[in-house]
Write a structure and sequence with these properties.
- This protein has a 4-stranded antiparallel sheet with strand order 1-2-4-3.
- It is built from 16 helices and 4 strands.
- The C terminus is likely disordered.
- Helices cover about 60% and strands about 5% of the residues.
- The protein starts with a helix and ends with a helix.
- Strand 1 and strand 2 form a beta hairpin.
- It has 2 domains: about 120 residues, no CATH class; about 190 residues, no CATH class.
- The chain is mainly alpha-helical.
Length: about 325
């Protein structure tokens, strides 16, 4: 993706050590801002930029860069009296993109950010067979979480069957209560946001962390229903179940888990699926490099590959039912 973005941006830099680098003045010229603006962002975000390819050249490497400048006849070589400078900061292409993500004063930076998003969505679509609905399944933790959740789901539905005096609608009703408690949407709303087809199963699209939290809710509430049933000596009516669920979801230990789940769902779905959960807008944060590696890197795989590799794991999980 970086190679494609470098071609699209058409930056005119300096070929050095096999890659294109830019000095401060070139960065300012590209983004149509002052050198002082670039210096300001560098001062405020130096560590981040250093981690993403910005470096200060000295000694032999600086001398080598100056020789490259002479050989390439780069017009900007005269900026800042480079020839007499004992050190020189340079941005490689990754650092160039990093600054583009930070700059607020530049219209060019804004347009480049939009281009990055477009290229990213295209890349995801290519790697996921033309769609992003099931990008969650490329996570190496997905299969185990999925089958574990199935087991806890059965505990939950059995508890509703045995301990709750309501009709068949109790199953979707309390499933939606769990969803609303965790990510503020019921099944219908979630399907609409992710643009799921009628044949698509909602849980097939959940990230492993969401599956784990749903499983915790299902198993925990199943046990709460069982305890209430044993205490009363009869099935619970709707009002009692609603009151019990309100007490269950208000327990303090859920808060950090829910906040983390909301942040992951909102941020990943916006970045990977171009889907905005309006009820979770305040939880959206930038998706880091490790997240892209997690779902699109070498360790990520299609579900079919995961299933083949996980036969023994699934067999053990099924034996526990």
């Amino acid at each position: 993706m970086l190679t494609e973005l470098e071609k699209i941006s058409n930056i005119q830099g300096i070929v050095f050590e096999g890659k294109t680098v830019l000095i401060k003045e070139q960065m300012a010229r590209f983004f149509e801002v002052s050198s002082r603006t670039v210096e300001s962002y560098l001062a405020k975000n130096k560590q981040e930029l250093l981690e993403n390819g910005y470096e200060v050249l000295k000694g032999k490497r600086l001398k080598s860069l100056k020789m490259s400048l002479d050989a390439q006849d780069v017009p900007e070589a005269g900026f800042g009296n480079i020839g007499k400078s004992p050190q020189l900061g340079v941005f490689d292409f990754r650092a160039f993109l990093n600054l583009a993500m930070l700059l607020q004063e530049s219209e060019r930076a804004r347009l480049l950010r939009q281009t990055i998003l477009d290229v990213l969505i295209d890349t995801i679509n290519q790697r996921t067979g033309g769609g992003t609905r099931y990008i969650n399944q490329r996570d190496e933790d997905f299969i185990v979480s999925y089958f574990e959740e199935e087991n806890y789901r059965k505990e939950f539905t059995d508890a509703l069957r045995d301990y709750v005096a309501m009709g068949q609608f109790k199953y979707p009703l309390y499933t939606d209560k769990i969803y609303r408690s965790i990510f503020r949407e019921n099944t219908r709303e979630y399907r609409k946001i992710l643009r799921l087809y009628a044949k698509d199963k909602v849980r097939d699209t959940f990230y492993s962390e969401i599956l784990d939290l749903v499983a915790s809710y299902e198993y925990g509430f199943a046990k709460a229903l069982e305890a209430a049933f044993e205490k009363l000596g009869r099935q619970l009516i709707a009002l009692e179940v609603d009151r019990l669920f309100a007490e269950f979801e208000s327990q303090a230990h859920w808060k950090p888990l829910i906040n983390k789940a909301r942040q992951k769902m909102a941020s990943r779905d916006l970045a990977f699926r171009d889907a905005l959960h309006h009820q979770l807008k305040e939880y959206v944060t930038p998706v880091g490099r490790e997240e892209f590696e997690h779902f699109l890197g070498e360790k990520s795989k299609e579900l079919a590959e995961r299933l083949e590799e996980a036969k023994d794991v699934m067999k053990r999980l099924k034996e526990r039912e």
